[in-house]
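User: Fold this; tokens only.

Assistant: Input:
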Amino acid sequence: MAFRYNLSGSEEVKNIVIADVVLIVAFSLTMSGGIAGIGATGIGPFVMYLPIAALAVTLSFVLHELMHKFVAQHYGAIAGFRTSMNGLMITLLTGALGFLLGIPGATMIYASNFTKRENGLVSLAGPLTNFVVFVVFVALLYALNPATSSYLYTALTFTIFVSILLAFFNMLPIPPLDGSKILAWNKPVYVTVLAVVFVLMFYYTSIPIISIVLMLVVALFFSLFYRLAL
């Protein structure tokens, strides 16, 4: 997954779009119970979930990666999003099986003179973007107060779920996740952000402990995958 420093704007847009589409399809497959679920209930649920997944993934994943890029460029780095062919295949395959390992690619950054502070701030930009998306959609949920059985309610709550889950996952202190770089820069900032995200995730998603354990397993897998791909 080595970064090509001459990556053009059009290539990067193509990479982001491909990763976005693959994640949208994979999320929709997962929410439908995978291929087995579609076989049992038909393609209707999968089609219904596509727009919801598109909203949640685009705002949570794409904006996350773009903020890494923009903040890195602000500090003089070369940065661009790159897909991983193996990562795309794993993302689609796991979605088809009814669970999700979403590793379609990452923002690759080249900087010869980054300080720990600059590296920490670049890393923090992603989870903070997810936090902003989370706050906006929680506010919309309370302001619009849709019926719990409505399509709008599902779209809003799923975006809330994905945004805060992605923030928490990326705050795990496992390289190359954002949390490892934030922790290396400033421990109080890391602990504060992780604590806030953790509490909000539990309050608004009621995620079971087993899912936290699974996220740790996924993070360790991603760390191994990343090192092997370099």
